[in-house]
Design a protein that fits this description.
Elements: H1 2-22, H2 35-44, H3 49-77, H4 83-101
Helix pairs in contact: 1-3, 1-4
Length: 102
């Protein structure tokens, strides 16, 4: 049961980070959209490539650091001491997040 709660909290953290990065403006998260959508936005002049690339880099660095720290903290809380257990738990969390993100 403990691992299920941790999985839910991990997915909630993922959602909060994406919401914080995008806010209420879809253009802030343009880098999440497929290339054809991005190209259309660029052609309409709603955003430029440099700004989107800068926002993507800023968001992704912070996102990866926070999610990695959360994963390491979960492994520490679960008292994982072997590579095999760490690998299995990390794989579980990353797979569930992948399913959640769809």
């Amino acid at each position: 049961m403990k691992i299920v709660i941790e999985l839910i909290l991990f997915c909630l953290l993922f959602t909060l980070l994406v919401k914080a990065g995008v806010g209420n403006n879809a253009l802030n998260g343009l880098y999440f959209y497929p290339k054809p959508v991005q190209e259309r936005v660029y052609s309409l002049g709603l955003a430029d490539r440099e700004t989107v690339a800068k926002k993507k880099k800023q968001f992704m660095i912070l996102f990866v650091l926070i999610m990695a720290c959360a994963l390491i903290l979960i492994l520490y809380i679960n008292q994982v001491r072997t590579f095999r257990k760490a690998y299995v738990q990390a794989l579980l969390f990353l797979e569930v997040m992948n399913w959640y993100d769809g």
